[in-house]
Amino acid sequence: MFTGIVEELGEVVRTTETGGDSALVAIRGPLVTSDARHGDSIAVNGVCLTVVDVDGGVFTADVMGETLRRTALGALRPGDPVNLERAAALNSRLGGHLVQGHVDGVGEVISREPAAQWETVRFRLPAGLARYVVEKGSITVDGVSLTVAEVGDDWFAVGLIPTTLKLTTLGTKDAGDPVNLEVDVLAKYVERLLGDRLAGGAR
């Protein structure tokens, strides 16, 4: 479990195909590897990955074909920056919102509108995700916990403060760039519970 508060801007060192459609990804992140051990979880652009090795500030993780197909990790190349966050500890503050690291879909940047102290960025929503996104609700974009400012049928917008623009990959994303999206898991639980209740009433 994560909170969507990025701890470090890491860098992809290499990606190695490991047979089939899986890969081994090596990522430099001195902060997140400072106490990392084999089996620990680290979110990479919002995707929960399991550490298999740590060496000199670089950790490696296996990425299955399913993950490569359902997220934007398959497009990463050596030198690309990535948002990194270690799994939350039970005694830590919940600075963002509850984030599982299970990507629901890949969206893309539609537009950016700079302002004096912040920037409004609009993203396209994959089909089927819009019903989980509400104004003033939470959403995770490439591992960053954000508050939805506006939402449409197939898009949503957020306001990014200078800190987010400087310390995460969202500051350099251009129109058309893919992003990993994770909607608020609470919305999915509510939908399931209400659906079961309505189905039961219908019977």
Give a concise summary:
The chain is mainly β and 203 residues long.
Q: Keywords, please?
A:
203 residues; mainly beta; 6-stranded antiparallel β-barrel; 6-stranded antiparallel beta barrel; 15% helix; 40% strand
End-to-end gap = 37 Å
Structure summary, number of beta strands: 12
Q: Percent of residues in beta strands?
A: 35-45%
Given as residue ranges, the uncertain stretches (5+ residues, pLDDT < 50) are: none
Number of helices: 3
Over the alpha carbons, how many angstroms does the gyration radius reach?
17 Å
How do the strands of the widest beta sheet line up side by side? 1-2-5-4-3-6
What is the general shape? globular
By secondary-structure content and strand pairing, the structural class works out as mainly beta
How are helices and strands ordered from N to C? EEEEEHEEEEEEHEH
On the 0 to 100 scale, the average pLDDT is 92
Helix residue percentage: 10-25%
The main β sheet shows up as:
6 strands, antiparallel, barrel
